[in-house]
Amino acid sequence: MAKYIIKRFFMMIATILIIATLTFALMHSIPGSPFDEERTSNPTIQANLEKFYKLDEPMHIQYLYYLKSIVTFDFGPSIKKPNESVNELLARGFPISFELGMVTILVALLSGVTLGTFAALRHNGIIDYLAMTFAVVGISVPNFVLATLLIQQIAVNLEWLPPATWSSPLHMILPTLALATGPTAIIARLTRSSMLEVLTQDYIKMARAKGLSPVRIVVRHALRNALMPVVTIMGTMLAGILTGTFVIERIFAIPGMGKYFVESINNRDYPVIMGSTVFYSAFLVFMLFLVDIVYGFLDPRIKLHRKEGDA
Amino acid sequence: MTNPTKIVSPDSVKDEWFRPKEKEQGRAESVVRPSLSYWKDAWRRLRKNKLAMVGLAFLIFLLFMAIFGPILSPYSVTGTDYPNQNKAPSLAHWFGTDEAGRDVFTRTWYGARISLFVGVMAALIDFFIGIIYGGVSGYKGGKTDAIMMRIIEVLYGLPHLLVVILLMVVMGPSLTTIIVALTVTGWVGMARIVRGQVLQIKNYEFVTASKSFGAKTSRIIRKNLLPNTMGPIIVQMTLTVPGAIFAEAFLSFLGLGVSAPFASWGVMTNDALPVILSGHWWRLFFPAFFISLTMFAFNVLGDGLQDALDPKLRG
């Protein structure tokens, strides 16, 4: 197990390094300096600004400074809002995005697994049919379309729930719903198909023959194996949800990472773009790493602590 | 041994006991069912899947409207008509007009053009890169495969949409940029599938047989491996398209894709956002409806193909 974790850890570092380098190269391949639009006619000011942001150094030195800023987790000041640092923006925006993302994944997991399990238990029954209809629709409707529809119908026409911001649990319902529907649908479908497969296995027949209660059979015996495919896609799904928060935050005017990220892109605020991209990707890659390790613990067939050929 | 069989002496065996069986002219060797190739058989099974056929029919309709819709309509995509702004659907404007008096009907089909173009181009480029990379990796095996797969694993960890957004910022919003950005990260999934398939099939007997007859590597790849990997590849392509359509709409929605006055479903949804409070439902409804229906159609068609092309389910 330790060997596997170490291997995965180094791969994670490699991925983060690649995205950091890619971000750096892309940002510096844009011609001109970020101060060009400012029309600071005074060359001394320009030079001082460039010196302050270390833009006067040669490229490889800038790259080293940049790597250092990642390791020390200090992304420096923003260019467009000089009195704010990238770290402050991240500290303000990230917790909100994180909260939205975590609530969403929790809702999606719980409802998706429940839906998929019941659909499998009532195979070809009315619940199965309804659940799968929901799943196909849920996969087809893009989250930003769903969000807009929800605001129009539930918040504006019916006035049941507030249409925007993130200030109370009541405000959280619509954004979460909009973001969680797609993942719920995917999880429900996956759970159903793997559950159907698992339920035909001999050990389930054995459990039935032993006279275990149906609930116990499903919860203790079937679910653990049926959930493996769900755990496999968890990593990429998390990435999808956390980037999906960008557009949801925009629609619901939630002041999370997405707001600052899109803003910084529109303003060409390079330190913010670079800082938030690297931070966000590092976070996502780390989540992927965690999911892989959880997978290793859960799947009895993967013997992580043994070398190949040992078994 | 208490075998009750009567023993017949060789002398009593008569010749007339033995006569040739009447020939059933050709019957025995004729094939009762018409021989079906893999593709014909797949098509036969796909046809039975009603949902997939509905999806296919809708996509054909969409393709037709994407090509001819903007031509058939008397209005242009970008033509403004300020006296007629925000008009509800009517005989003159079937889907209504937007805040600049542009015809939503025309813009919807123009959006279909963009979505289909982005989706199909992304799927095709993924297909070519994926087949070459995955094919080489799976066929060569050994060290080459190990190195190529490490690269894939690292790339697979990249958050795709972030990379796409980053590329859009640097290259500037345009349709080409969207396609390039989507394929830079998108081919990885296809390469993994091709590699898995090749790895499995290259050890089958018919490949060994082909080799023993002295077939060249290129011939084995073209004649033995590729045709047998096509099923999962086609399914993957069908499922790539809705992903790409979603990504284009997502980016356009964020203001990073196709920009006004040109229309894409993402742009139209985004434009509809400020006016939904004023009850201009058609502004949101038509792009939302068609983007969802298109994703639905590709998804059910992909699912149907997956079942139809699965050799294990061949009946």
What would the keywords be for this entry?
heterodimer, A: 311 residues, mainly alpha, MetI-like fold, flat, B: 315 residues, 10 helices, 0% strand, elongated
Please provide a written account of the structure.
- The complex is a heterodimer of chains A (311) and B (315).
- Chain A has 311 residues and is mainly α.
- Chain A has helices at 2-28, 43-52, 59-71, 86-121, 126-140, 143-157, 169-199, 202-209, 214-226, 228-251, 257-267, 270-298.
- Chain A has a domain at 87-265: MetI-like (MetI-like fold).
- In chain A, helix 4 (86-121) packs antiparallel against helix 5 (126-140).
- With 315 residues, chain B is mostly helical.
- Chain B has helices at residues 38-48, 50-72, 104-140, 142-156, 160-171, 175-201, 205-212, 217-253, 265-272, 281-309.
- The longest helix of chain B is centred in the middle third of the chain and has 37 residues, at 104-140.
- Chains A and B meet through helix 1, helix 5, helix 6, helix 10 and helix 11 of A and helix 4, helix 5, helix 8, helix 9 and helix 10 of B.
- Total beta strand runs of chain B: 0
CATH superfamily annotation of the domain at 87-265 in chain A: MetI-like
Quaternary state reads: heterodimer
The string of secondary-structure elements of chain B, in order, is HHHHHHHHHH
Give the helices and strands, then pairings.
The complex is a heterodimer of chains A (311) and B (315).
Chain A: H1 2-28, H2 43-52, H3 59-71, H4 86-121, H5 126-140, H6 143-157, H7 169-199, H8 202-209, H9 214-226, H10 228-251, H11 257-267, H12 270-298
Helix pairs in contact in A: 1-12, 4-5, 4-7, 4-10, 4-11, 4-12, 5-7, 6-7, 6-10, 7-9, 7-10, 8-9, 10-11, 10-12, 11-12
Chain B: H1 38-48, H2 50-72, H3 104-140, H4 142-156, H5 160-171, H6 175-201, H7 205-212, H8 217-253, H9 265-272, H10 281-309
Helix pairs in contact in B: 1-10, 2-3, 2-10, 3-4, 3-6, 3-8, 3-10, 4-6, 5-6, 6-8, 7-8, 8-9, 8-10, 9-10
